[in-house]
Design a protein that fits this description.
Structural class: alpha/beta
Organism: Amycolatopsis umgeniensis
Shape: globular
Protein name: Glucosamine--fructose-6-phosphate aminotransferase (Isomerizing)
Strand order of the largest sheet: 2-1-3-4-5
Strand content: 5-15%
Order of helices and strands: HHHEHEHEHEHEHHEHEHEHEEH
Keywords: Aminotransferase, Repeat, Transferase
GO molecular function: carbohydrate derivative binding; glutamine-fructose-6-phosphate transaminase (isomerizing) activity
CATH topology of the largest domain: Rossmann fold
Number of domains: 2
CATH class of the largest domain: Alpha Beta
Helix content: 40-55%
Number of strands: 10
EC number: 2.6.1.16
Distance between the termini: 39 Å
Radius of gyration: 19 Å
Length: 347
């Protein structure tokens, strides 16, 4: 029996993403059926429930719902229902629960509670036979296939695309901006190799990393921070570019690495002041995204240009590769990080 190499699963699953994304685009009619059911019951506002990487996908969906649908949207705290017994009136509310496994007890319970309280409940999961799917009235299967590595990679990007296609279809869209994402994802991975290796060589001994982004890209900053923490055990923190200037910038110095996610669109203009500020404090800035060439940085990794709304699906790809490379360079195995399980069950 061949011995598994460290990081083998994570590397393979990162590489599978272009094909998975292309497959989701081909299945968008299934997602459109769920969107049609939502359109038949127009919500007053939307709520999202999630944990971990799925929580970052939910934040991405929050931006989509507020910008594309013009609806107020919030991220719920499941414990208000599971621990404190809150039972709000959720009539005419769209309640979307995002979970790769569909098995966390708190997410199942809060979905069941929301449904009893009158919400239209939708599960977005990679496990269509899960208890979460049974708890929700409607369900979107992201179809990423079995993910063996503990760190979510292909399930994360697949969740982002599924959420985009769902929300775009609710507004009557046909997913045009996502049509070539499989091809663009392959371009992004193919072109990132040199920059990723330079980043790994440059930051393999760093202890403190800040990740930052604005708008849609803030979700990528959060997910990037989580990947660096769980695979390389780095002290990684994520901040919105706006929040970074409101206090945390005081902790930035020459020993700080800053990973800035900067894709073309409204967000990149808002990041200029942020990166100038951390640069003046001596931070070493790595810019990742389709606008990486347009911001002050010591190192840049470009991403294939796309519509701003779908950029996070692409910009996370080289960040995943950086997390993989740093983990291996620091002697770790990102397929089995210490103290972590694939499915985390909380209440």
């Amino acid at each position: 029996m061949t011995e598994q190499r460290p990081g083998e699963h994570m590397a393979a699953e990162i590489s599978q993403q272009p094909a998975i994304l292309a497959g989701i685009v081909e299945r968008q009619a299934e997602i459109a059926e769920v969107a049609e059911a939502i359109s038949q019951r127009p919500p007053r506002f939307a709520l999202l429930a999630a944990r971990g990487s799925s929580d970052h996908a939910a934040l991405y969906a929050k931006y989509l719902i507020e910008v594309l649908l013009g609806l107020p949207c919030g991220l719920v705290s499941p414990s208000t229902a599971t621990l404190y017994g809150a039972r709000p009136d959720l009539r005419d509310v769209l309640f979307i629960t995002v979970s790769q496994s569909g098995g966390s007890p708190d997410l199942i319970e809060v979905t069941e509670t929301a449904r009893r309280q009158g919400a239209l409940t939708v599960s977005v999961t990679n496990t269509p036979e899960s208890p979460l799917r049974a708890a929700a009235e409607l369900g979107v299967d992201i179809g990423a296939g079995l993910e063996k590595a503990v760190a979510a990679t292909k399930t994360y990007s697949a969740t982002l695309l599924s959420l985009y296609l769902l929300i775009d279809a609710v507004r009557g869209g046909k997913g045009e901006d996502a049509a070539k994402l499989g091809e663009l994802a392959q371009q992004t991975l193919d072109s990132a190799d040199e920059g990723v290796q330079r980043a790994v060589d440059r930051y393999r001994f760093v202890d403190r990393v800040l990740t930052t982004g604005r708008g849609y890209s803030y979700a990528s900053a959060l997910e990037g921070s989580l990947k660096l923490a769980e695979t390389s055990y780095l002290a990684a923190r994520a901040y919105s570019g706006a929040d970074l200037l409101h206090g945390p910038v005081a902790a930035v110095d020459g020993e700080t690495a800053v990973l800035a996610v900067t894709s073309q669109g409204h967000g990149v203009g808002a990041m200029q002041e942020v990166l100038e500020a951390v640069g003046k404090r001596g931070a070493d800035v790595l810019a990742v995204g389709s606008a990486s060439a347009d911001v002050p940085a010591a190192l840049r990794i470009g991403v294939a240009p796309s519509a701003e709304e779908v950029a996070p699906i692409l910009e996370i790809l080289p960040i995943q590769r950086i997390a993989l490379g740093l983990s291996l360079a620091r002697g770790g195995d990102p397929d089995s990080p210490r103290g972590l399980l694939k499915v985390t069950k909380t209440r």
